[in-house]
């Protein structure tokens, strides 16, 4: 395992994206435990894209405009749904203290869908993973799987860190309704912009 891979993976995971935003929103609204569920869901949502790139299915999305566009607009719709969910009472940033397994499962599922419905994630893995596998590797599949698993572990740890920071700020936010309203609108607008950017992207 190269140091370059670890550093690159950490930088990629630290960059704010829809998964980071979702984990932060859940941490601010529902606390640390819920943010861990969000982080876990976002991490598990990486699995389909990682496996698709490893077995070469990501190339299909690259070659087939219809397949890519279909998944892309499903992703757009879900990002817009997340924007609406954050704005409404009881959504991702709802302040309810429901810590039941069913509630945690819903949070994790929403996080997973954010990544599952992102077609660019599979293309990212298709371009990202092979760079760190030596050309003379007789069977690259186990090496690719190991790199994907480590990337997921880094993602989970990073997102839990983001969630912990958000949870620490929760008491401050809850005690100031105007601040919470501003933050909720900002997160919703950001998810809306992410959806718009995905919709307008050529590939």
Describe the structure.
The chain is mainly α. The chain has one domain (17-200). 78% of the residues lie in helices and 0% in strands. The chain contains 11 helices and no strands. Helix 1 (3-14) crosses helix 9 (140-168). The protein is globular, with a radius of gyration of 18 Å. It starts with a helix and ends with a helix. The mean pLDDT is 78. It is a multi-pass membrane protein. GO terms for molecular function: homoserine transmembrane transporter activity. The chain crosses the membrane at residues 6-29, 36-61, 73-91, 112-133, 145-170. Belongs to the Rht family. It comes from Pelagibacterium halotolerans (strain DSM 22347 / JCM 15775 / CGMCC 1.7692 / B2).
Q: What tags apply to this protein structure?
A:
203 residues; mainly alpha; 11 helices; 0% strand; cell membrane; membrane; RhtB family transporter; homoserine transmembrane transporter activity
